[in-house]
Amino acid sequence: MKAKILNSRQKKKMLDKLHKKYALDSSELRSLVFYADEREVWVAAECCLKQNLQDLNIQSIGLKLLSNGKPTIAAIQAFFKEADKTQLSEIEGKLFIETGKTNKKGKIMAYRDHPINLK
Amino acid sequence: MSDSIEHYLGLIYIQEAASMIAVEALKPQTGEVVWDMAAAPGSKTTQIAAEMKNTGCILANDVDRRRLNTLRFNLNKSGVCNCIVNQADATKLRCNMSFDRILVDAPCSNSGQIRQGYSEEAFTKGEVKRKSVIQRKLIDAAEKHLKAGGVLVYSTCSLTVEENEAIADYAVKKHGFSVEKIKSKINAHEGILQHRGEVFSDDVADSLRVYPQDNGADGFFAAKMRR
């Protein structure tokens, strides 16, 4: 694996940044290992990265959290308590988290804990 | 239900009732290392991940690259973080990993899905025989990587004895597995012990056979085995 595993300080820094930027509740992410290459950040259960993976033809490990610094759709759905068919910008994300509203029309959106009635 | 926001978010996953027996029987625990040998499209893998509370490690294996894309999509959608997606022929896996539990949800003739349509190609004797050869190879590979005391669940959505009880019997006789009873809330039958002159080990009766008419769901077979 070419990606680098982030140490605890780097991980904390990233979680703080995500909290500041997207009001992310980091509790679900604390137990996971972060690893990154130049543009992407992945999260995985620690046990996955402890395995002897040398001879495997690995397509992916864990879940891609950030791509080019922005949360991926999968991460948004899993951790960011909101969902959309497209990724939200920082402003849209903040607006949605704070008010449950978005300027985007015709998109499916929801809080994980407060499902929105589509009708 | 597939239009619900919960489904879109990956909070729920829609799966045939009978198919869920396999993971129920596997009973994966938090922190364990599990191998899903033929994982795509990921229905059972996501169920395993949920049972393990996203801890431990699942090696989700499939040979077909296109099906792996579907697998990854479903894993991502469900927020699965404890999974390694690997493209390989599970019968030829080259790695030193050993597993607490292994699910062999084997490729089969799909005859249990007869309610959903009929495929003449899948039901030929030749095709069933070809699949049963692969199924035996999967059992052999699983045996090599299973920890002592580990659990192996063999399942198919087929109704043919050649792909089900005959394979469980092979695992018992060749590798010394013992078959354990599966507790399930859905209507089911014991494994068949005699078929066309062939007599299977008594252990095989503890496997579980579900016909489509039993629950108004697909037909299914599962055998829970332990080393």
**Terminus-to-terminus distance of chain A:** 46 Å
State which percent range the strand residues of chain A make up: 15-25%
Largest sheet, strands/sense/barrel of chain B: 9 strands, mixed
Query: Structural class of chain A, please?
Result: alpha+beta
Mean pLDDT of chain A: 74
Strand percentage of chain B lies at 15-25%
Instruction: Tell how many strands the DSSP assignment of chain A holds.
Output: 6
- The DSSP helix count of chain A reads 4
Distance between the termini of chain B: 40 Å
Summarize the main sheet of chain A.
5 strands, antiparallel
Low-confidence stretches of chain B: none
Shape type of chain A: globular
Task: Sum up the structure in keywords.
heterodimer, A: 119 residues, alpha+beta, 5-stranded antiparallel beta sheet, 4 helices, 20% strand, B: 227 residues, alpha/beta, 9-stranded mixed beta sheet, two-stranded antiparallel sheet, 7 helices, 11 strands, 30% helix
Written overview of the protein:
The complex is a heterodimer of chains A (119) and B (227). By secondary structure, chain A is of the alpha+beta class. Chain A is built from 4 helices and 6 strands. Chain A has a 5-stranded antiparallel beta sheet with strand order 1-2-3-5-6. Chain B has 7 helices and 11 strands. Chain B has helices at residues 5-9, 21-26, 43-51, 65-77, 125-145, 165-175, 212-215, and strands at residues 33-36, 57-62, 83-87, 99-105, 146-156, 178-180, 189-190, 194-195, 198-199, 208-210, 220-226. In chain B, strand 2 (57-62), helix 4 and strand 3 (83-87) form a beta-alpha-beta unit.
